What we know:
Elements: H1 2-25, H2 27-51, H3 61-108, H4 122-127, H5 129-154, H6 157-187, H7 192-200, H8 203-245, H9 250-260, H10 266-283, H11 287-312, H12 320-340, H13 342-354, H14 360-366
Helix pairs in contact: 1-2, 2-3, 2-6, 2-8, 3-5, 3-6, 3-10, 7-8, 8-9, 8-11, 8-13, 9-10, 10-11, 12-13, 13-14
Amino acid sequence: MVTTRVSTIFFSVGLTIMIGWLFYVGKDIILPIVTAVILLQILYAASAAVARLPGLGRTPIWLRATLALIGFLMVLFAMTRMLVASLQNLVPSLPLYQRNLENLFASWFPVSATATEPKIRAAELMASPSEIFDRGSEAVGKAVSEFANSFFTEIDIASIAQTALSSITSFGGFVFITILYASFMLSEITGFPEKVRRAFGNDMASTDTLNMFTRINHDIGSYLATKTLINIMLGVVCWIILVIMGVEYAVLWAIIIGLLNYIPYIGSIVGVAFPALFAVAQFGTLTTPLIATGLLTAAQMIIGNVVEPRMLSKSVNLSPMVVLISLAIWASLWGIPGAILAVPFTTILMIVLARRETTRPIAALLSADGNV
Length: 372
């Protein structure tokens, strides 16, 4: 019995590595399909909310999911327009922000003309420890100053923004393909249970498979739908804070914060870093950026530690350590999209492993409390 379980675990790990390699090699083909499946699960969960609207409670699920898809496209279109408009307005102002940063670093680490100063002998330095400290501090300040000057001289922030703008344009093609896949999947959602029954033949096997898909749709759909609502709330709160503090392009930074909050643990930190660094470049001082960063961090902590646990509850029963490991793995495979989809992917893997007795111990190890 023990030998069987060990061999099962061994082959499961080997199969997981092979699938990961295929995912890495076929990223351009697999990622839109997988994203479409995840989007379909979000629409499946959103269709339950649409059913609560007056007159739509008895409509078929495909119609409710289609209405949810239309609403999603409208929100995506509006958000994309705001992003593109903000970036187009941001690019002409980048030289000014770059000069503000240069002036700020120049005030911190002024370059002193030390070439004309007399050289101090080693014996004199050894006789005065304070002189060693002063000379060391001066050398460090000079090195940092030279690095900052060379950094801001060589870096071209405008070209970086132009690259980001073109990346959004290319991202539009990816979104179009994903929505196309999701639309075709949506058209087949009503006949899917009958396909499963005909494919497996055995009523017990087909019922077990349909139950597995039902749980995946429920867990992943409810998690992503609730997470999306939380991120919208966070984005609105951060937008209000940025507007009050006078930070420009508050809509852009609020959208970035909301999107990056899909990434567990790390996304919230990175999301706050973008507007904080921009505020330093805008104001050329540290007072307002530090206050804005503190308020944004407080909003992240309140929503992340109070609101999110209450709303998400136990929709995904994953161990925090497993979440971190899966985040590292999927981010290395697919970058930012992999980091965003790390939790849904790992949850699906746990649900699939829990359906078989031989792989149930692995699913229990992936879970937070062992109940799978």
